[in-house]
Amino acid sequence: MNIRKFAKIMFDAQHLIELGSWTPEAMEYLRICVMAEKNLLVTGGTSSGKTSLLNVLSSFIPGHQRIVVIEDSAELELQQEHVISLEARSPDRYGRGGVSIRDLFRSSLRLRPDRIIIGECRGGEALEIIQAMTSGHAGSMSTLHADNPLDALSRLETLCMMSDVNLPLYALRAQVASAIDVVVQVTRFPDGRRSVTAIDEVLPLDKEGQYRVQEMFDYVLDKVSDSNLGRLVWTGAKSTFRDDPRIRVLSKEMKLTASIFESEKDKARMQSR
To answer: Which CATH number does the domain housing residue 268 bear?
Structure first.
């Protein structure tokens, strides 16, 4: 028997800043991405804090939206009003009565969800998830076991191949690259600390059909020889979403990420003046 005991008080965004798990700039960047309905994938190893971070990211979702949460075992605790929680069920000893995440996902599409949150993507349901993300259910989130953002996309591709649908490899990769907008990597260090170590935006496939990402935030170690502490810093790259009308409206209300989301249209307009 395995008992997972959760804290009575859940982590919030400010608490993660105090713990050093992320920075105010990274928090503001991800807040804008969530509010602008970008599809997020939280990746990391076992016990790295993926579910805890997903819970914090879900707090950025506006309260008026309907959220459908699908999990293998209930772990997420969303605070919004319109939340529908669905939990998978194992079959009995005769193989009857089982309800998989794939079954729940297909049923959730009939509930008119504004957002779909999958506790963990681990099987053939990945194909339905990315198809939903590219067909009107923007702003979805999920977690995945992976060591880095590029490996996460490859592993998501492998999970899609576990479905009953046979797609050409290039078409499948194009769907994965189109569905996922941002990959957030979480790492657990040997001393027990958990931190966001990378935030990447997913780019279209290159000419050879390979995945590409743009590093937005990277984990940099402090310049101290006897310390392995570090912090998440902006790489200086401009967001590929900066010309999205929703991003442009939201980014004007934020100060820390103004340089990240500086629109080429706004920049040209300022220069013409």
So the answer is: 3.40.50.300
Give the total number of structural domains in the chain: 1
- The reported pTM is 0.90
Return left, alpha or beta for 192; rule: phi > 0 is left, psi -120 to 50 is alpha, else beta.
left
- What is the pLDDT tens value at each position of the chain, 273 positions in all? 888 777 777 778 999 999 889 999 999 999 999 999 999 999 998 888 898 899 999 999 998 999 999 888 888 888 788 899 999 888 888 888 888 888 888 888 888 888 999 888 888 778 888 887 887 778 899 999 999 999 999 999 999 888 877 888 898 999 999 999 999 999 998 888 899 999 999 999 999 999 999 999 999 987 664 556 788 999 999 999 988 888 888 888 788 888 899 876 666 565 555
Task: Quote the tokens at residue 173.
Answer: 């990769």
Question: Please, what is the Cα angle at 44 between 244 and 229, to 5 degrees?
Answer: 95
Q: How many Cα atoms occupy the beta-carbon half-sphere of 259 within 13 Å?
A: 8
191 within domain boundaries: yes
